[in-house]
């Protein structure tokens, strides 16, 4: 089997989940998030773009229902033994097959939690599911139950996050080796992605972000490459990925002579991320992190140019996003605890002057001071 964790690790995770299910008075849970299935069983696929769900009972019994293309995938990459297939056909409704499976598992009339808030659950699937199960039992939204359990990383998971961080550093080294006037973004992007693959890493859960000149002010990947000018700016956001575990980084590189605004915005980013390190520790909340970010940025007159979030939890994620549910935004009460892997980013996009500046890295929380996982400093990068 292509397992990245040993069976005792999976047993601990299942025990944590079933304890939480009993606390929530759930008889069963329907997992639609691929990262939930991966965390609980090792099941590794991109087949969640089609209907599939993992049924977990409060007694620890599990059964996966999926398509024939993923039957061997599930058997090979997971600890699952009960894998059932729904048949592709005209007007297929796999929720009928799921309902029949739930009957076989003695769950008629049960209280069943469902992961609705995931990319593995389309609106059409949700409607079909509700149509089948509304009268079947008591259905409740349990979208964040597993997500919250996954916030705290085990020692084995920490090792994968640390390896992902090494690959992220390697990608930055590869980018900087090529970044100069006249360099092609395509070559830089290829070198970054190649460094991750050469180090034994994976595709990240979303595309690397690369943009120069005006495109440096964008926070999302877009198609199209250009060559760097003598004086330019290049924004990069990427992640090392290993066994699907991510470590994110972000930088804006200035090519040629930096403007006064570049220096000014960099100082704001650096000061803010240093201040955040003082609150990124147990006893504080995700909301506290954002409040520190907003306070410093707003005091510098940058409220129009900053974002409404400054980072998020990272872990094992699948396309289309490496972001976890738990983000640093206003009012988030989520407590910071040891052994969380958290990506902190400062993003200032000044559209008035056309100036971009970003700074970001992944931390592992501890009992006290957070540990930056990158070997790179947060110094201003000018080539």
From TrEMBL:
Protein species of origin: Rhizobium altiplani
Domain Creatinase N-terminal: 13-152
Superkingdom of the source species: Bacteria
Coiled-coil regions listed: none
Protein name according to UniProt: Xaa-Pro dipeptidase
Phylogenetic lineage: Bacteria, Pseudomonadati, Pseudomonadota, Alphaproteobacteria, Hyphomicrobiales
A Pfam family of this chain: Peptidase_M24
Residues covered by the Peptidase M24 domain: 161-366
């Amino acid at each position: 089997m292509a397992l990245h964790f040993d069976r005792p690790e999976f047993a601990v995770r299942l025990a944590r989940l079933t304890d939480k299910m009993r606390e929530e008075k759930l008889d069963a849970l329907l997992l639609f998030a691929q990262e939930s299935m991966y965390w609980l069983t090792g099941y590794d696929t991109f087949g969640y773009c089609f209907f599939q769900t993992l049924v977990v009972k409060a007694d620890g019994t599990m059964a996966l229902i999926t398509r024939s293309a993923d039957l061997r995938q599930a058997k090979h990459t997971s600890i699952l033994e009960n894998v059932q297939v729904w048949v592709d056909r005209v007007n297929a409704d796999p929720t009928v097959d799921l309902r029949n499976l739930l009957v076989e598992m003695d769950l008629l009339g049960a209280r069943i939690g469902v992961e609705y808030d995931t990319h593995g659950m389309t609106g059409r699937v949700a409607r079909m599911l509700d149509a089948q199960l509304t009268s079947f039992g008591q259905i409740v939204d349990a979208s964040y139950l597993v997500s919250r359990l996954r916030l705290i990383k085990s020692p084995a998971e920490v090792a994968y996050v640390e390896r992902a961080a090494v690959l992220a550093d390697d990608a930055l080294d590869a980018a900087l080796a090529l970044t100069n006037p006249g360099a092609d973004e395509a070559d830089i992007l290829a070198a970054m992605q190649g460094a991750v693959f050469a180090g034994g890493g994976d595709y990240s859960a979303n595309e690397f972000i690369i943009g120069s000149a005006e495109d440096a002010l964008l926070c999302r990947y877009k198609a199209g490459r250009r060559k760097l000018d003598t004086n330019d700016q290049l924004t990069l956001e990427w992640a090392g990925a290993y066994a699907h575990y991510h470590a994110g980084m972000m930088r804006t590189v200035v090519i040629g002579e930096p403007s006064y605004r570049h220096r000014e915005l960099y100082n704001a980013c650096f000061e803010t991320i240093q201040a955040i390190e003082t609150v990124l520790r147990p006893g504080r909340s995700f909301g506290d992190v954002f409040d520190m970010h907003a306070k410093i940025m707003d005091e510098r007159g940058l409220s129009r140019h900053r974002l409404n979030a400054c980072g998020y939890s990272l872990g094992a994620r699948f396309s289309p996003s490496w972001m976890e549910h738990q983000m640093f935004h206003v009012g988030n009460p989520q407590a910071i605890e040891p052994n969380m892997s958290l990506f902190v980013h400062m993003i200032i996009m000044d559209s008035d002057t056309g100036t971009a500046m970003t700074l970001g890295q992944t931390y592992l929380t501890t009992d006290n001071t957070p540990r930056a996982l990158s070997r790179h400093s947060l110094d201003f990068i000018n080539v």
